[in-house]
Please model this.
Amino acid sequence: MTLAKGSTDRTLLDKTFRISLILKGLDGLLELVGGILLLLVSPAQIGAWVRLLTQHELSEDPHDLVATTLVHWAGTMTVSATLFGAIYLLLHGAVKVVLVWAVLKDKMWAYPWMIAFLMAFILYQSYELLVAFSWGLALLTAFDIFIVWLTWHEYRAHRTRNANTPAGNAARQT
Model:
């Protein structure tokens, strides 16, 4: 599997890897935007927006799961929780965007970092799933596991290809 420039013979796995990375990168950008918004908006403002956005749904169905969960979540937000969320999203998003960009540019150093970064979050997310299961987090964790597998596969392919080139052999001998 290769993502070398000019390569037009890409396998389904190559395309899946590239699309998955792009989705991960877009997710990282959304996390950056979310982190910035959490820094700029107070918990009270978030609560007011949530009530405004859910009032119509709750007037029709006062037991709507999504709307009642959002209202409850917004009502329990604190300044410290909002700050933690902002910092978490900003750091997670920034690292994700940098690593995705580097892997898409075939920077060999980024592959192990991407795998380690995702594994750390998979472990944390697994703990969270045990404490408080949610389908969203379960799907995110499954997607992260899939990306780790694709990244490992791509990394091994790059290492094998580099080991079989004169430049790769010379680099190993020095």
Remarks:
- Confidence is low (pLDDT under 50) at residues 1-7, 170-174.
